[in-house]
């Protein structure tokens, strides 16, 4: 996979030679459409990268060049240390041939799940053009994360304002992603804090369409998320959700589905599989419910 033999540091390779070799080890982040690119490295290659990152590169005089080599090398190492260790990155998600969404994903800190993009949002974004009502008055997304679904909705329905919401530690990055994609949504996407557990953050506005992608991974989530939907969804409005069928959360999913059945009438549902960052093929269930 890496046929060229990297230079021995004792031969004092030039900045350009060394930098090019390090960059050859780059692994592209997964795009959720196919299994992740293999990132296997032989023990010799690991050893070489570690030698470079720990070398003082004394023969390279320019400090900026040294920094570039150390930074690139440490990124090539962290790309292979699992999704949790990945450095911050900006990825392009191709939703349709004519719609690409760029998302900044900061490096993962303090278990903030909303700082990365989850497979459910990719699957739902690709379905949205078939299932979105034609002219929603006002769209709310709950637990937007990096914003893929909300930004796709805003691009597909340019006349409908979309409000993306999440916890305080997530919203700044959503604002950044709204700015990054300004040309596709034309300014119709906004973001603010909305904590399902804190009613004072819900606001008084109501919506005729609410969307949630991968929102169920704690026993509190079915009831707290659905209380927000009950309060903010107008009668006649639509609630679209999607979630992965993770064995670990089977009882939470059952609880969520039982509650939705009592609250709404179902208008559509289905299952799809896709790849996620963890390189598994995952099964996702989506549904469309109406508040009558
Ligand atoms: C698994 S992530 C999914 C993110 C995004 N929807 C996606 O599919 O990529 C779950 C999201 O729910 C948000 N969340 C969890 N608890 C929440 C709460 N109490 N209030 C608001 N958002 C919450 C998290 O911050 C995170 O962004």
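^ Assign residues to that structure.
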């Amino acid at each position: 996979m890496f046929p060229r033999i990297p230079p021995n540091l004792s031969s004092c390779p030039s900045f350009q030679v060394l930098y090019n070799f390090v960059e050859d080890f780059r692994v592209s982040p997964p795009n959720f459409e196919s299994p992740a690119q293999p990132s296997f490295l032989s023990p010799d290659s690991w050893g070489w990268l570690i030698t470079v990152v720990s070398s003082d590169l004394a023969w390279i005089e320019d400090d900026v060049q040294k920094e570039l080599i150390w930074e690139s090398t440490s990124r090539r190492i962290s790309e292979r240390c699992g999704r949790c260790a990945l450095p911050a990155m900006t990825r392009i998600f191709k939703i349709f041939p004519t719609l690409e969404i760029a998302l900044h994903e900061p490096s993962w800190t303090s278990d903030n799940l909303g700082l990365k993009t989850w497979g459910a949002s990719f699957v739902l974004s690709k379905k949205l053009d078939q299932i979105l009502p034609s002219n929603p008055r006002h769209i709310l997304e709950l637990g937007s994360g990096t914003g893929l679904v909300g930004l796709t909705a805003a691009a597909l329905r340019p006349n409908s304002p979309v409000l993306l919401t999440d916890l305080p530690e997530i919203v700044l990055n959503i604002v950044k992603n709204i700015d990054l994609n300004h040309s596709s949504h034309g300014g119709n996407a906004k973001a603010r804090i909305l904590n399902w557990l804190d009613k004072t953050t819900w606001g008084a506005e109501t919506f005729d369409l609410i969307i949630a992608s991968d929102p169920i991974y704690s026993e509190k989530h079915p009831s707290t998320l659905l209380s927000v939907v009950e309060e903010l969804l107008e009668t006649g409005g639509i609630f679209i959700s999607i979630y992965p069928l993770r064995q670990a959360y089977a009882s939470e999913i059952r609880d969520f589905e039982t509650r939705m059945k009592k609250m709404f009438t179902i208008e559509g549902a289905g299952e799809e599989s896709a790849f996620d960052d963890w390189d598994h093929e995952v099964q996702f269930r989506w549904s469309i419910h109406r508040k009558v």
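The chain has a mean pLDDT of 91.
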